[in-house]
Amino acid sequence: MNLLYLGLLLFVTLLTTLYLASSKAIFAFSDWTFHAARVEEIYLNLKSGSFFTFIAARTFHNTGAASFLFYPYIFFYPWAFLRFILSPVNAFYAWYALVTFATATISYFSMKAYSKKSLASFIFSLVYTFAPYRLYLGGAVFGEYLAVTFLPLLFLGIYEVLWGDKKKWYLLAISGALVAYAHILSVFLSLEFAVILFIIKLITSRGISKDRIKSLLLSAGVCVFLVLPVIVPFLTDFIGQGLSSAKPSISYTMGPRYLLLNSFSAQKGWKLSFMLMLTILTAWAFIKSRRNWIIYGLGLFACFLTTRYFPWKLTAGTPFEMVQLTARYLSYASLFLTILFALGSSSVLEEHVTGRKKLALSCSLAVFMALFSLSSLSVYRDTLKHVQDMPKTSANSTQPAPFKRLRDYNYYNQFNYKILFGAFDYMPKSSLTSVQKQNSLLMHQAYLNGKTLTLSPLIKANQISYQVKSEKAADVDLPVIAYKHTTVSVNGQKHAFRRGNRGTVVVGLKRGQNTVTVGYKASPVFYLSIFISILSWLALLIYLVKFKAKYAQ
Length: 553
What we know:
Layout: H1 2-21, E1 26-28, H2 32-47, H3 67-70, H4 77-82, H5 88-115, H6 118-129, H7 132-137, H8 142-162, H9 170-182, H10 184-204, H11 210-226, H12 228-238, H13 256-262, H14 274-282, H15 290-306, H16 330-352, H17 356-386, E2 404-406, H18 435-442, E3 445-448, E4 451-454, E5 458-460, E6 463-470, E7 474-481, E8 486-490, E9 493-494, E10 498-499, E11 504-509, E12 512-520, H19 524-552
Antiparallel strand pairs: 1-2, 3-4, 3-7, 5-6, 6-12, 7-11, 8-9, 8-12, 10-11
């Protein structure tokens, strides 16, 4: 039965992806240009023989921004590798299909482990994977989009440690690591619900056994080892370095009426599906177990967090402001409410459907969800028909990337625009104190002997070079960000430097023609963290093989 359901999930995945890909275009909105630039940098570095990407030498206007150090990107490698065999547009949609099917598969088996019901797991996977909010994320918000893939496994892990089989602590360790490799903020959001579940466990069970505490600590400890390459750059290059990050603020909340009414429309977006909205309105009538009441409460609470009725103003100045957009909680609302919808609907269906009718029902559900998803995506397709192609602009333009259409022939136009969201993330705060400073970086402006020079960079992987001619010995302030492990050479020789008032590399030059090369050399601790992480993954794999063999006996 698993193969049948996985085949149907693959069918819906391919149908929805092909529907989008047949447009032969992409709508570059929201965070698209930020992530597309990151993928482009990885692809070009791979093409030149460099596996690791630390700074943006080829994209982000050649500023050397280190978003790669502080924003995980491992799940973008499949997209980058697909660029070697497919056109830019097709490579994206192939990656989109891979992530979608991975989400469907993980969702199915996570729910199967939780409910022990195949039909309920199939329904859960369909509704969760093709939820309107997740479809919205798949258009541009890729960090969160990737994290949503692993949330069902993460909360299965939390359930096993707190209520289920505590020997399956490894599920929490693995899923927590996968979420961290996808989107750091989603780790924070997931921790909020994990803490709530822990408190509920303490109240409902009047405490928690030492064995479960050990399993919880073990999973947390192993998870840290698995994600060391994500943690170490923050410790070595971010803390105490005066760097900026995404601005912490609650910039948008929804009204309950908006959430309710919008969820009954067919479009993808910041909303729940009508199935989950009906679950909110009717689930209380058929919930019988305390476990399902807890899930229902979590789903309602996640919906409440999206609205302006939650006192978000009280979170000012606290880490909770990192949420920025309260719509992020829709992923958690979808997760919890879909569990109830799948359990309730599958119970009703199984009472009346058996044998071959069950097969017909499963196929019908797949077709229905495919049509529902196509309806949600139709607005996106219509947008692609009417929006204009992204025009060319100069290589050092300060104009923000417009919400325009990308095709294979104009795909590279986007990289000459200023990235709309995230262009200056993880730069020194001193470089953001004025628009003039920001624009000077985008326009490749250097300062020498009181004069402003516009330079043309020479690019290699994680390395930016400039030819600078000076009439006398002087300091040059280059339009490249200086980090703790930035390296500088002048005419092939290692050279000292300092950070200027733009947060950029300032280096002393001798009279005459000079070639100044700015690069990044990761600390030995970073490479050690990769080695430890790989060993940890291998050790965990060996443990799982032995555990499964012992468990089978």
